[in-house]
Write a structure and sequence with these properties.
Order of helices and strands: HHHHHHHHHHHH
Number of helices: 12
Largest sheet: none
Number of strands: 0
Distance between the termini: 55 Å
Low-confidence stretches: 1-6
Mean pLDDT: 80
Helix content: over 70%
Shape: elongated
């Protein structure tokens, strides 16, 4: 199969995914990941927020060089920075975990139902070959998540370079979203060989979808950048952030479903054997 050129399949899948987000079933399905991820996040915050902030503050106070910097900042009028720096560091470390948790919850609990909805409404004649079992999807998701977390940890020093913080995290989220969602979308309907073919030949369009969704997933983080006063509303903003992450990853699952299933349909059509031409009757001429 030749790899598609142009952006027509991407845009077609994009608008279809956006329209599906308004479907009542999609809205209802988004509530379960929100309750699960949001409840777990709030529970962890309730039990570990204060100890985490206290531990970070104690660690910072033990650094003499940082203490000198903080005193200098206080001398020029930034008196509230000392109280804010520890909660901000805890949030900076917690937000990637919230994103990963939201992605995994959506991928494992919501994505199969969304793929089934797209397949039933648009690809009803597409045979489900079940090329990957549930345990394979879970292992694949966990393995990709581990690689993404390692990449985030290793790239953390680069986040302090102003241009790179706008590039590195969304790219890592985009890669993770692409690897997890594309596999889950194709697990039910494609065979193992078909899945590998599509992931190889459509790798750049799939990665483009993942990167766009990675940048959309970075948008909820702006809630924390509005003002330092947002720390007062941290529990509420955490819940809103999880809800926004859930919507973004639900849209991503729909976008991947429309694009990947359409690619699977084209792949099968291109490999379908051409039926032989019917035999023409032989005309027997009468003897003269």
């Amino acid at each position: 199969m030749a790899q598609d050129s142009g952006v027509t399949p991407l845009l077609d899948a994009f608008w279809r995914a956006a329209a599906y987000c308004l479907h009542p079933r999609v809205i209802l399905l988004s509530l379960a990941p929100l309750l699960l991820a949001g409840g777990l996040t709030l529970a962890l915050g309730w039990f570990y927020w204060e100890p985490a902030v206290a531990g970070v503050r104690a660690t910072l106070e033990a650094w003499s060089s940082l203490e000198v910097l903080l005193k200098w900042l206080e001398s020029i009028g930034l008196n509230g920075l000392r109280a804010l720096i520890a909660p901000l560091i805890v949030l900076a470390l917690a937000l990637p975990l919230i994103v990963v948790l939201s992605l995994l919850v959506v991928a494992l609990s919501m994505a199969p139902a969304l793929v089934s909805l797209v397949a039933r409404r648009r690809f009803a004649e597409l045979e489900a070959k079940r090329g990957a079992a549930l345990w394979q999807s879970v292992l694949w998701s966990l393995g990709c998540t581990l690689v993404a977390v390692i990449a985030l940890v290793l790239s953390l020093p680069l986040w302090f370079v102003p241009p790179l913080i706008l590039l590195i995290p969304p790219l890592i989220w985009g890669w993770l979203t692409c690897r997890v969602m594309a596999f889950d979308v194709l697990a039910e309907h494609a065979s193992a060989d078909e899945r590998r073919t599509i992931l190889r030949e459509q790798r750049w369009p799939l990665l483009a979808i993942g990167v766009v969704c990675g940048y959309l997933g970075a948008a909820p983080t702006l809630l924390w950048a509005v003002s330092a006063a947002t720390l007062i509303f941290a529990p509420l903003l955490v819940l809103i952030s999880v809800w926004l992450y859930t919507l973004v990853f639900a849209f991503a699952a729909l976008w991947f479903a429309h694009f990947a299933l359409a690619a699977l349909q084209r792949l099968r059509q291109s490999t379908m054997p051409v039926p032989p031409a019917p035999l023409q009757p032989i005309e027997i001429l009468p003897l003269s």
